[in-house]
């Protein structure tokens, strides 16, 4: 019997509530599909930072390397200045654990939850593969003459041939394995960012030669936001850089029904990956048992797939789909017609 070690970071706000439901579904999946797992909890997040002044202990990254996967609730606290927890925990883990892919499947499960007129589940079904280790997120740059009228801020986008190639290669492999149209779109800005996206485009074209079975396509980032609203059915798999990927995946989350259902993975294909609902800590809903846990449960399904438990992942996703199409009134917090825990129970029952 396969056995997995899973590091759990419930985090801030509603993170612990949705993580609890994700783990509930994981437990049910383990008994049904005959695998074992153990979890270890880590209390990293805003509360711990405010209490101890420590964002992430020095040993954390090495500790996490001993796990098979990580399951994260949310990081972000209203009393902590923006940037401290994001850079100190989330981005540090992505970088130091070499989770160079941000995987965001986007699927509308029920027409009722789509804000786009005339679009249904057949139209909104694509995946965004976001480079997760470079670009504007690398932290290159600095401030000069701070707090004077001459102040200068420089924030550079780092794009390496190595970093782009491994991301693009992952995207081609992913398209071959999961793409419904075997079509990969590069999203960039080759008309203005003529250094960075020239390198992206050339690397993309070079790798494409090894995948004659994959159709390739290109869209500028501004145009893609338009097409995602107007013709989302055009897309199958999209690969893009860190900043553009951050922006377009929030748009994508909305057309699939909102943050209540949007799950993502920070993937190191050769190491430990971290899975999370992408909605954030939603402090105003904390402790009310009204937040939608389906994004976290979807993240658990992505984790199962990455661990190799494909059947369990399929079953969890099928059960989520049935809850969304047959039971739930709305995907938003407080409007589901069920509590957070009840929605978790429904997914378990569906298994
Ligand atoms: C995301 C988030 C993070 C990001 C923040 C919280 C640092 O928005 O995962 O998309 O910008 O990557
Ligand atoms: Mn984001």
In brief:
This protein is α/β, with parallel strands linked by helices and 351 residues long. Helix content is 40%, strand content 22%. The chain has two domains: 1-99 and 271-351, 3-Layer(aba) Sandwich (Isopropylmalate Dehydrogenase), CATH 3.40.718; 125-255, 3-Layer(aba) Sandwich (Isopropylmalate Dehydrogenase).
Describe, in plain words, how this protein is organized in 3D.
It is a single chain. This protein is α/β, with parallel strands linked by helices and 351 residues long. It folds into 2 domains: 1-99 and 271-351, Isopropylmalate Dehydrogenase; 125-255, Isopropylmalate Dehydrogenase (3-Layer(aba) Sandwich). The chain has helices at 15-33, 46-52, 60-64, 84-96, 161-178, 196-208, 221-230, 242-255, 294-307, 310-326, 340-350; strands at 3-11, 36-41, 69-74, 101-107, 125-131, 135-144, 152-158, 183-188, 215-220, 237-240, 263-267, 273-277. Helix 1 packs across helix 10, helix 5 crosses helix 6 (196-208) and helix 9 packs antiparallel against helix 10 (310-326). The mean pLDDT is 97. The structure holds 3-isopropylmalic acid and manganese (II) ion (MN). Manganese (II) ion binds next to helix 8.
- Estimate the strand proportion: 15-25%
Q: Kindly report how far apart the N and C termini lie.
A: 20 Å
Strand count, sense and barrel status of the largest sheet are: 10 strands, mixed
Write the CATH homologous superfamily of the largest domain.
Answer: Isopropylmalate Dehydrogenase
CATH class of the largest domain: Alpha Beta
What is the number of helical segments per DSSP (H or I, 4+ residues)?
11
**Which sequence of strands runs across the widest sheet?**
2-1-3-12-11-4-5-10-8-9
- The rounded Rg comes to 20 Å
Compute the average pLDDT: 97
Helix fraction, binned, reads 40-55%
**List of distinct ligands in this structure:** 3-isopropylmalic acid, manganese (II) ion
Strand tally, please? 12
Question: Which fold name corresponds to the CATH topology of the largest domain?
Answer: Isopropylmalate Dehydrogenase
Low-confidence blocks of residues: none
The computed structural class is alpha/beta
CATH architectural group of the largest domain: 3-Layer(aba) Sandwich
Backbone shape: globular
Total number of distinct structural domains: 2
């Amino acid at each position: 019997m396969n056995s997995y070690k899973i590091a759990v970071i419930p985090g801030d706000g509603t993170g612990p509530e949705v993580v609890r439901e994700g783990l509930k579904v994981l437990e049910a999946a383990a008994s049904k599909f005959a695998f074992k797992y153990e979890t270890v909890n880590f209390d990293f997040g805003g509360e711990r930072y405010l209490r101890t002044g420590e964002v992430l202990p020095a040993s954390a990254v090495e500790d996490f390397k001993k796990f098979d996967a990580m399951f994260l609730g949310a990081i972000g606290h209203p009393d902590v200045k923006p940037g401290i927890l994001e850079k100190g925990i989330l981005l540090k883990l992505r970088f130091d654990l070499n989770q160079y892919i941000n995987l965001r499947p986007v699927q509308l499960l029920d027409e009722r939850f789509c804000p786009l007129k005339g679009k249904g589940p057949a139209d909104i079904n694509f995946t965004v593969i976001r480079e997760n280790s470079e670009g504007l997120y690398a932290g290159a740059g600095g401030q000069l003459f701070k707090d004077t009228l001459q102040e200068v801020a420089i924030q550079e986008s780092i794009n390496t041939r190595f970093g782009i190639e491994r991301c693009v290669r992952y995207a081609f492999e992913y398209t071959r394995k999961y793409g419904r149209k075997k079509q990969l779109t590069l999203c960039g800005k080759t008309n203005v960012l003529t250094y960075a996206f020239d390198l992206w485009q050339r690397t993309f074209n070079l790798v494409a030669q090894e995948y004659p079975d994959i159709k390739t396509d290109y869209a500028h980032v501004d145009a893609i936001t338009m097409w995602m609203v107007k013709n989302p059915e055009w897309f199958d798999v999209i690969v893009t850089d860190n900043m553009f990927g951050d922006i377009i995946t929030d748009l994508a989350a909305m057309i699939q029904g909102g943050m209540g259902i949007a799950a993502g993975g920070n993937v190191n294909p050769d190491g430990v990956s971290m899975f999370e609902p992408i909605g954030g800590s939603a402090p105003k809903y904390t402790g009310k048992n009204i937040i939608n846990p389906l994004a976290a449960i979807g993240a658990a399904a992505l984790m199962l797939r990455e661990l190799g438990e494909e059947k369990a992942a399929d079953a969890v996703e099928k059960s989520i789909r049935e809850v969304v199409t047959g039971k739930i009134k709305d995907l938003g917090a407080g409007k589901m017609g069920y509590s957070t825990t009840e929605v978790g129970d429904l997914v378990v029952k569906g298994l």
